[in-house]
């Protein structure tokens, strides 16, 4: 198992590469414990290049220097977490207060990856809202004269004056799918390596399932037919408790692996069906 440090920041760096932001620099040092200002600067950079999230933030929230209290930081992040979850169709598993305190860097990185992934969806949602709002305002007072009927309608928004596929700064669905595929495949590879590290099956080697099954049956029969009288353990009580606790920890880790496997399978199914 080991105590090796889990690399949760590289997927974040990879998720932002297609966006080609002008800043801030996504370094491992900052991503290992992302400070609030760093996160806010990322959002500001996204808005400067893609205008993706500025429509869900208040004017005060768009000015990072005015977010100067814990309450304002929590409100700012809550807005983004809920909106990104809405765009991706799932709940983002993160506590905004812990993002502010820097106590859950791994989940914070997962949120940042979702933030990058949802940029294209945010632009689409923004365009849809602008179009609906424009329609609601213009419909009741639309003139019916022949002269005005043939004139092009005026618009104050870029999203209304251009076809949706020609919107500036928009990320194509191909890029979004490529990002999602890269993230899911990276997670699958990491899970594969984790299981291969201590699993009974050697996932990176060809094995006959018949032989593996036969060996399991033989092990079962040996245990079943073993009539040797059980002797009390010669281990000291403290050592025995330690051994039992280790076994309990192994069972817990297997349970966590099962949950991780189920989550990964769901992501792969979504990826294959999209």
UniProtKB/TrEMBL annotation:
InterPro entries: TRAF3IP1, TRAF3IP1_N, TRAF3IP1_N_sf. One of its GO terms (biological process) is regulation of microtubule cytoskeleton organization. This is TRAF3-interacting protein 1 N-terminal domain-containing protein. It is found in: Cytoplasm, Cytoskeleton, Cilium axoneme; Cytoplasm, Cytoskeleton, Cilium basal body. Keywords: Cell projection, Cilium biogenesis/degradation, Coiled coil, Cytoplasm, Cytoskeleton. Residues 8-116 form the TRAF3-interacting protein 1 N-terminal domain. Residues 132-143, 153-164 have a biased composition (Polar residues). It comes from Trypanosoma cruzi (strain CL Brener). Belongs to the TRAF3IP1 family. One of its GO terms (cellular component) is intraciliary transport particle B. Transmembrane segments: none annotated. One of its GO terms (molecular function) is microtubule binding.
């Amino acid at each position: 198992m080991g105590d090796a440090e889990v690399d949760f920041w590289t997927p974040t760096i990879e998720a932002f590469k297609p966006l080609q932001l002008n800043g801030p620099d996504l370094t491992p040092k900052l991503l290992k414990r992302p400070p609030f200002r760093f996160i806010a600067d990322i959002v500001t950079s996204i808005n400067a290049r893609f205008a993706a999230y500025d429509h869900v933030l208040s004017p005060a929230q768009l000015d990072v220097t005015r977010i100067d209290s814990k309450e304002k930081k929590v409100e700012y992040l809550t807005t983004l977490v809920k909106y990104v979850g809405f765009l991706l169709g799932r709940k983002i598993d993160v506590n905004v207060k812990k993002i502010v305190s820097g106590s859950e860097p791994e989940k914070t990185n997962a949120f940042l990856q979702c933030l990058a992934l949802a940029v294209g969806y945010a632009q689409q949602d923004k365009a849809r809202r602008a179009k609906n709002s424009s329609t609601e305002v213009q419909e009741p007072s639309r003139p019916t004269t022949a002269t005005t009927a043939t004139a092009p309608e005026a618009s104050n928004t870029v999203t209304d004056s251009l076809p949706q596929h020609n919107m500036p700064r928009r990320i194509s669905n191909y890029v979004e799918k490529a990002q999602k595929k890269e993230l899911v495949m990276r997670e699958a590879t990491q899970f594969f390596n984790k299981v291969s590290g201590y699993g009974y099956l050697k996932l990176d080697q060809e094995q006959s399932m018949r032989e593996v099954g036969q060996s399991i049956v033989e092990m079962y029969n040996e245990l079943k037919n073993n009539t040797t009288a059980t002797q009390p353990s010669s281990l000291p009580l403290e050592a025995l408790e330690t051994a039992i606790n280790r076994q309990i920890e192994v069972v817990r880790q297997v349970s966590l692996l099962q949950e991780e496997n189920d989550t990964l399978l769901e992501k792969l199914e979504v990826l294959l069906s999209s």
